[in-house]
Protein 1
Amino acid sequence: MDNSGGIRASLAGRYASALFDLARDENQIDTVAANLDSLGAALTQSDELKALIACPALGNDDAVRAVKGMAKAFSLDRLTANFLGVLANNGRLDQLGAAVTAFGTLVAAHRGEASASVTTAHPLSAAQLDALKAKLSARMGRDVAVETTVDPDILGGIKVQMGSQLIDASVKTKLNTLAQAMKG
């Protein structure tokens, strides 16, 4: 699989690509993907974890100690734990969220799935996520891997990004459109 395009153009994408190559070589793609999914979910739900990875005052030694603790707390596999260690050693923990997303895109492409980024104002339940995946899969004609993000600023509704196609059914966009129409 050629992943040298847009993903490798970003710093997080280069880290994700390196991890993907290692995981593929060791037949650990599913394990690493599951671990990164749990980390990604924790990033969206934990303000403390967000603060930890975004803290510019955190030295590399402290960051390494913190990710060792994270690896134990999340029962991470060796590759994922080492990946976190590399990010910490290089002062790049702030790239974790973007690297998780890029890795998910690489895994989806490897599996022959389309990928979609979904933004909602509130977290989706498992049933809602399954229904959304089914609808997107029917639309695309193949399996769709969905990466979810919660953004309260959209107020409600949903935004779906599949490649260059954006479906924006958010309340914020509808209100902005109405405001523009009223201005005349």
Protein 2
Amino acid sequence: MKSVVWLFLTCFFGSSAALACSSDEDGCVESEQFQLSVALGAGQRSNPLYDGESFPMLLLPDFSYYTDTWFIDNGTVGYSLAQNDQFAVSLVMRLNSEKGYFQRWFAGNVITMNSSGSFLPPEVETGAERSMSRVSVEHVKKRPTAVDAGLQFNWFGEQWQSRLNLWQDVNSKYEGQNASLSWSRFWPLAGGQFDLSTSLYWKSAKLIDTYYGVGEDELYYLERYQGRASWQPELRLGWQKALTSRWSVLTFYRYLHLDDAMTDSPLVQDDSVQTWFVGMSYRFY
């Protein structure tokens, strides 16, 4: 498996040729151009787990860097295999974000910070045989940090774009796969730009079982659960309006629905994850 990761990273930083992208093309990022903006405001992402903490969204960085062959776009590193005005295919790598529900300051939640907390079990009677039907995230073992790698396909239109991602766990933490298909449409509205996005996520049974299953190696009084493959649809609404060349107002709302493969887990109390943000964005570059 290490050889696979090494080969993948070698492809990222190799010197093979790629299609050139001129700066005057619509929807095209100029080669070797660094972009950085920061949004300040109020918002949060809910946590569907019992005793899981919601993630506050007060400062949202947005950064990217593209060359003719490879790119960094927020948490994704990629290598372009082919591209033109309407289509692109890339090799990509990222941290899997599933651990973010279990550890508030996980790197996948924008900021990295060491988390601390009590992992002592709740008080139970000695010899109790009844399993707990509701399980706190504080009473299960630590969930792993997984690295995903795979393929990304992008399609571009005048007022829309679509993306397909196929991911494989490459550091053998959950030994499974996940995928997503998304479509976005843009309209001018109230002097700004309104966007509507729909996405469908598929997560393999091994991924769900690793993060939301409760196995024999957990504390004996917890209800056992073996994860199944999960389908999770999402809807996103957003609006952004430029005030100056650098300042703009930004707001968005996302609703992710969790199916029975998730909600049947004794760790999960809600059937959705809701994210919202209202604030101002400043573009540095």
